[in-house]
Specification:
Layout: E1 12-15, H1 28-44, H2 48-62, H3 65-73, H4 77-84, H5 96-103, E2 108-112, H6 117-127, E3 135-137, H7 150-159, E4 167-171, H8 178-182, E5 186-190, E6 215-217, H9 220-225
Parallel strand pairs: 1-2, 1-4, 2-3, 4-5, 5-6
Helix pairs in contact: 1-2, 2-3
Length: 231
């Protein structure tokens, strides 16, 4: 069995946003989840129960429900994003310790998300992390092709001139680390800390033992702090 990749060579730090830069138990994404069900129900004129079933089917099949709705039902991405991201961000609290840990990392820090820049901006503002990142690659930059599609990572790497063999990727979904690992990135799966209830599908919490996951942490701040010496 090969040893997990390390971080000494890393000069680009890539972070997912939702359930990665804030704790799973905030359940912020649950609000988006509810809004998605409402959107699907209204657009397709189906019951909430049927909308929920289709939502989850498209999520697993296409990477995001939005991609399924665009592909199969002609939905406008802008209309979809504007509706589903209209949520209350107040459960998020400033996290200066995480900001300090990110600031101490040597190299660039980027966000790679299936959300929109507007959603990223709102989340980072609440967390107090808006000044800590050098760039954002969102679902619009990905031309609405979500992770874990291989072309999305390739476009991200090209757009931001990232050498994947000198990069690390932090994600809450193990399936979204498969391609990064294949490309040579050091991969870190961020999991719930187990102290509070999280609202996630069972498959979303799987993959801790997958070969493409180099490291697993339930404390991103502590994990990052351990990668660089204190100032």
């Amino acid at each position: 069995m090969s040893q997990p990749r390390t971080f000494a060579h890393v000069d680009t730090w890539v972070f997912d946003l939702d359930n990665t830069l804030y704790p799973h138990h905030v359940n912020l994404w649950q609000q988006v989840d509810v809004r998605i069900t409402e959107f699907v129900s209204s657009w397709l004129q189906v019951t909430p129960v049927e909308a929920r079933r289709l939502q989850k089917e498209y999520y697993q099949r296409f990477g995001t429900t939005m991609r399924g709705m665009m592909t199969l039902h002609g939905v406008s991405a802008n209309d979809y994003l504007a509706y589903v991201h209209k949520i209350d961000h107040s459960p998020l609290e400033p996290n200066p310790a995480l900001g300090e840990a990110i600031a101490r990392l040597s190299g660039r820090k980027l966000i790679l998300t299936n959300g929109s820049v507007d959603h990223v901006d709102a989340v980072l503002a609440r967390l107090g992390l808006a000044t800590h990142f050098d760039g954002v690659f969102d679902i619009i930059a990905a031309q609405f092709e979500p992770k874990p599609a291989a072309q999305t990572y390739q476009k991200f790497l090209a757009d931001h001139a990232v050498d994947p063999t000198r990069a690390a990727m932090f994600e809450d979904l193990a399936r979204n680390l498969t391609v990064p690992h294949q490309l040579g990135m050091t991969t870190v799966l961020v999991v719930p800390d187990g102290t509070k209830e999280v609202v996630r599908e069972d498959w979303e919490l799987e993959g801790r033992d997958a070969a493409h996951v180099d490291h697993v942490t339930d404390d991103l701040t502590g994990f990052l702090a351990g990668l660089s010496p204190p100032r």
